[in-house]
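== Folding the chain ==

***
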Amino acid sequence: MAKSIIYQKDGKKAGEMELNDSVFQAPVNQRLLQLVLTAYAGNQRRGTHDTKERAEVRGGGKKPWKQKGTGRARHSSRRSPIWRGGGTTFGPHPRDYDTDLPSSMRQAALVSALSLKNQENDLLLLEDANLKQAKTKELIGVIEALGLKDSRTLFIVESLDENLKRASRNVKELFSIRLARDVNAYHIQRRRKLLIETKAVPILEKRALLVPELVAQGVKS
């Protein structure tokens, strides 16, 4: 098994941790990651966009001018798409963008996403995620100590401490936090760096390997 360095909140090394090669050193399926990224992004769309067609716009009951004798082009209605205020041709209408991905595909994508971060040296382990106070300043100090100040980071934790939750509210764009039981390949791909609490690693490995007891509990992939 591959080993990864565990860091403390002050940036110092606290030891090493073995990672499951089947999860963090697996071959990366780039095509699958792209498909999953598109599917998850589509699932977040509301699909309520709508435009009015020719039959839906107001007016147009009277012919603009007579058919012949004016020297102008023939027109039957002001609802025509070529008129200002007319209908829209082939415009968008409400639709469902949801894509139902098989659990095996979501699981394989999670493995590929974790392996890709590890192979690109964008994965770090943190010994403890808890903060002493619910202060953004303290969290910023941890981010700077780990060298993550200039990288949008996803932090995966076992459970979300109230102090950490409140301290991260002002830095969500830079430092996003997800529970290990809820994170998916889309969340991981959307961030440059991946920071994982050591207690969250076993949960990720069990989810990625589809451990039966987690499946029975309905844990998301």
Summary: The chain has two domains: 2-45+100-216, 51-91. Helices lie at 21-24, 30-43, 103-119, 136-145, 162-167, 185-189, 201-208, 212-216.
